């Protein structure tokens, strides 16, 4: 092997595998309570989650009956913004409505 270098290295290109990772997604959860008016919850779902009135009413009823429901699944910063929008609106109207997020 006259043409190989003395150090034993051969001229083979080795490429390190680059692994990318999908960003984690976050569920936005709406929680039931005894005091927030149903119409307010429907309005919140329409305004911040782009639902039509029928969709919003149905999801509000699901939360009312089951205690909580997933309103949507979003990238971290989008989920955070939705939670803040809901919590700010609830605070402004002095309703105890709670909205949280959790990693999917
Ligand atoms: N349980 C409330 C009522 O009877 C309505 C309600 C629904 C409140 C959904 C919060 O996330 C909620 N007025």
TrEMBL record:
GO terms for biological process: protein catabolic process; proteolysis. Residues 22-100 form the Adaptor protein ClpS core domain. InterPro entries: ClpS, ClpS_core, Ribosomal_bL12_C/ClpS-like. Binds to the N-terminal domain of the chaperone ClpA. Belongs to the ClpS family. Involved in the modulation of the specificity of the ClpAP-mediated ATP-dependent protein degradation. This is ATP-dependent Clp protease adapter protein ClpS. It comes from Maritimibacter fusiformis. The gene is clpS.
